[in-house]
Amino acid sequence: MSGINREIVLDARHANKHLPNTTQVQTLLRQNRAAHVFKDQATMETDLQPTVTLT
Predict the structure, then answer these.
(1) Which of 5, 13, 28, 30 could bridge to 35 as Cys pair (CB 3.0-4.6 Å)?
(2) Torsion of CA 10, 16, 17, 19, to 10 degrees
(3) Residue 30 to residues 23, 33, 51, Cα–Cα distance (Å)
(4) How many helices (H) and strands (E) are present in the chain, helices listed first?
(5) Domain coordinates of the chain in residue numbers?
(6) How much is the pLDDT for 4?
(7) How far apart are CA 15 and CA 30, in angstroms?
């Protein structure tokens, strides 16, 4: 990506809303909102890495 001169990393503050059995996911589901949930944190990081490192 042109114009971004720093490494882009996943913000850990938002990780819990994508992991199963967390308070954040339960809140989204109670509010009838969508929750994109990965199997575990390792899967999430593996799946997101190609997206975060686009050049």
Answers:
(1) 28
(2) 100
(3) 10, 7, 29
(4) 2, 0
(5) 12-52
(6) 67
(7) 19
Task: Give the separation between CA 52 and CA 55, rounded to whole angstroms.
Answer: 9
Amino acid at 36: H
10 burial type by CB count under 10 A (0-12 exposed, 13-18 middle, 19+ buried): middle
pLDDT of the chain along its 55 residues, tens only? 456 677 767 777 888 888 898 999 999 889 998 888 889 988 888 887 766 555 5
Whole-angstrom distance, CA of residue 5 vs CA of residue 28: 34
